[in-house]
Amino acid sequence: MEQTFIMIKPDGVQRNLVGEIIGRFEKKGFTLKGLKLVSVDSAFAERHYADLSAKPFFNALVEYIVSGPVVAMVWEGKNVVATGRKIIGATNPAESAPGTIRGDYAIDIGRNVIHGSDAVESARKEIALWFPEGIAEWRSSAH
Ligand code: CMP
């Protein structure tokens, strides 16, 4: 089953949006497979955003991600990567539709509340980076 990596960024945690965001993924029908509140250091944030290292906003982005705890999650379900991106909304909150997380809760591209993997392959890499210990597994089919 497809999985994606979702991170509630420091502004989302600080603004008490964790429950709201988790609720949106739960109510859509996705399954929570991994969840932790973590503070990462610059080296780790640079690995997560390695593809953006040439961007002019890279240093500011890394500083922002290390500024406070983030909620790292793995969500599972049919088309969860693409549908998760729809639930999150466009990267720039000026373009994200009302009803999406960024459309409802953000106005600044540098403080856009949440990250979601952009493709199945990046989800696989991001889950391996953030959850090297693995994720919880159901041990029976009773659920
Ligand atoms: P995210 O989905 O985490 O992926 C990369 C992040 O870079 C993005 O969300 C934004 O937070 C950030 N970002 C993208 N473009 C800009 C920009 N022009 N200025 C500042 N931050 C940006």
Automatic annotation (TrEMBL):
The active site is at residue 115. SMART domains: NDK. Its cofactor is Mg(2+). GO terms for molecular function: ATP binding; nucleoside diphosphate kinase activity. InterPro entries: NDK-like_dom, NDK-like_dom_sf, Nucleoside_diP_kinase, Nucleoside_diP_kinase_AS. SUPFAM superfamilies: Nucleoside diphosphate kinase, NDK. Major role in the synthesis of nucleoside triphosphates other than ATP. The ATP gamma phosphate is transferred to the NDP beta phosphate via a ping-pong mechanism, using a phosphorylated active-site intermediate. PANTHER family: NUCLEOSIDE DIPHOSPHATE KINASE. Belongs to the NDK family. This is Nucleoside diphosphate kinase. It comes from Salvia divinorum (Maria pastora).
